[in-house]
Specification:
The chain has 361 residues and is of the alpha/beta class. It has two domains: 17-71, DNA polymerase, domain 1; 84-357, TIM Barrel, CATH 3.20.20.70. The protein has 13 helices and twelve strands. It has helices at 3-7, 22-31, 37-47, 62-71, 143-158, 179-190, 210-217, 234-240, 243-246, 249-263, 281-291, 317-329, 350-357; strands at 78-84, 90-95, 101-109, 112-116, 120-122, 137-140, 164-169, 202-206, 224-228, 267-273, 298-303, 333-336. The strands form two sheets. The chain has a ten-stranded mixed β-sheet, with helices on both faces. Strands 5-6 form a two-stranded antiparallel sheet. Helix 11 packs parallel to helix 12 (317-329). The two termini are 26 Å apart. This is Probable dual-specificity RNA methyltransferase RlmN. S-adenosyl-L-methionine binds at residues 173-174, 205, 228-230, 305. Its cofactor is [4Fe-4S] cluster. It is found in: Cytoplasm.
């Protein structure tokens, strides 16, 4: 854990039951004089049966359940609100044990249900077009608090016998500034005895925390990487994304090249289009020149969401298509993100921002 992560760590007195990997549970039952198979039983109750309390783990001896209750908290995400869009998108506003609020989104696709999870309470990266940064960073989430979002979403899907088929780590916060918790979260998500999500069905997005892009490249996973780029050069990116002053554009591109060389995997570059700011033909041409260094690159064009506290406006539809055509003419694969949940403030940070306006955290 680096200095940034430790500074923003939560102050919970006991770990959450979701904070432990299966290996952690195996060590814990050994240390507590319990039979080794108990670890698998606990894991099964959490991720297959998806119980809501330790008392429901009925095949565990009462003495063991009592010890678990003494040493662990069951993650409580209190549902403050839960909205369902006409397109099937579901957005949760959860309150944590310290009364901070976070968001989680279920997105319906033809290929299944994708869950967008939050990794921090707020964000300190400071992108000038994003609602997540309003109010700054409060703290990191534990791995268990991130996991609990997926479990809560899966419990809702259980009602219709559906399942979580993919995960995007693109909610509130910068995942690579909470790197260790995110990696522990991923370990549980992909475990065959956990929620068993395929690695290639998980994407983690970063605004460009360069040292942890190198770390992630060395992890030897099949999990997808997305980079929020949003500008084709250093000057414009620094205006839109203050993180670029800490990790300049050239350093980011170099880290991305290392990732591709090390993993052989493509990177998705996310590009939020803002009217009159970064959406002109010359921006598309410049972006294409930068990304020619990445033969498999994919650009996800995102019409910017309106945020009342920000001044940006959405790029006209015809200009979005023009931007896409310029990239494709330069042999850069580009798609336009389909808008989902606009009628329920499903864009990242919008619902929490409204909640904060009411005096909540």
């Amino acid at each position: 854990m680096n200095e940034i992560e430790s500074r923003w760590q939560p102050k919970n007195e006991k770990p959450y039951v979701y904070d432990f990997t299966l290996e952690d549970w195996q060590q814990w039952v050994k240390d507590n004089g319990e039979a080794g198979f108990r670890a698998g039983q606990i894991f099964d109750w959490l991720y297959v049966k998806r119980v809501s309390s330790i008392d429901e783990m009925t095949n565990l001896p009462k003495t063991l359940r009592d010890r678990l209750k003494e040493q662990f908290d069951f993650v409580t995400l209190t549902e403050v609100a839960h909205y369902r869009s006409k397109d099937g998108t579901v957005k949760f506003l959860f309150e944590l044990s310290d009364e901070n609020a976070i968001e989680t989104v279920i997105m319906k696709h033809s290929y299944g249900n994708s869950i967008c999870v939050t990794t921090q309470v707020g964000c300190r990266v400071g992108c000038t077009f994003c609602a997540s940064t309003l109010g700054g960073l409060k703290r990191n989430l534990t791995s268990g608090e991130i996991i609990a979002q997926v479990v809560k979403a899966q419990q809702l899907l259980d009602e219709t016998q559906e399942r979580v088929s993919s995960i995007v780590i693109m909610g509130i916060g910068e995942p690579f500034e909470n790197y260790d918790a995110v990696m522990k979260f991923l370990k549980v998500m992909i475990h065959p005895k956990g929620l068993n999500i395929g690695q290639r069905h998980i994407t983690v997005s970063t605004s460009g925390i360069v040292p942890n892009i190198y770390r992630f490249a060395d992890e030897d996973t099949q999990i997808n990487l997305a980079i929020s780029i949003h500008a084709p050069n250093d000057t414009l990116r620094s205006k839109l994304m203050p993180v670029n002053r800490r990790y300049p554009f050239a350093e980011l591109i170099e880290a991305c090249q290392y990732y591709v060389a090390k993993t052989g995997r493509r990177i998705t570059f996310e590009y939020a289009l803002m009217g009159g700011v970064n959406d002109q033909a010359e921006h598309a041409e410049e972006l294409a020149k930068v990304l020619k260094a990445f033969p498999m690159a994919h650009v996800n064009l995102i019409p910017v969401n309106f945020v009342s506290e920000r001044d940006f406006v959405r790029t006209p539809r015809n200009d979005i298509f023009t931007f896409q055509r310029i990239l494709e003419r330069n042999k850069i694969n580009a798609t336009i993100r389909r808008e989902q949940g606009s009628d329920i403030a499903a864009a990242c940070g919008q619902l929490r921002a409204k909640h904060m306006e009411s005096g909540a955290r």
